Amino acid sequence: MDVNATPDRFAVVIDDESIILAGMEIMLDTWGYRVLAAEDVETVLAKLPGHPVPDVILSDYRLRDGWSGITAVRAVREACGADIPAIILTGDTGAELMAAAKAEQVRILHKPVQPNDLRRQIEALIAPA
């Protein structure tokens, strides 16, 4: 991406594994996104004020301090006062997760996710209706 370009999309990424978080941040940046990335929900919520409403939330399912991707998405949506499109990346295939994701209107992608597949999923979620 051109370093002088002004990305017009904003993504929030939550993953408690720092190497995955860094990789996601770099990948989204190359796709033209401004990124707020953090290893925990509290950090995201503390840094959100002053940012625009995110275009998309990407979260791992299993987070630290008792948070899940579902509760993280809910917290970010509530903080922003908006129904932000969200994707949870997980290896979990349990019925409880699927039911919660459906109830919260969150898309589930099972790991490993190829970058091009993730990009297509994000673009489909945030494309204008």
From TrEMBL:
It comes from the Bacteria. The modification 4-aspartylphosphate is found at residue 60. It holds the Pfam family Response_reg. Gene3D superfamilies: 3.40.50.2300. GO terms for biological process: phosphorelay signal transduction system. SMART domains: REC. Residues 10-126 form the Response regulatory domain. Keywords: Phosphoprotein. The keyword Glycoprotein does not apply. PANTHER family: CHEY SUBFAMILY, STRESS RESPONSE REGULATOR PROTEIN 1. This is Two-component response regulator (CheY-like). The lineage of its organism: Bacteria, Pseudomonadati, Pseudomonadota, Alphaproteobacteria, Rhodospirillales.
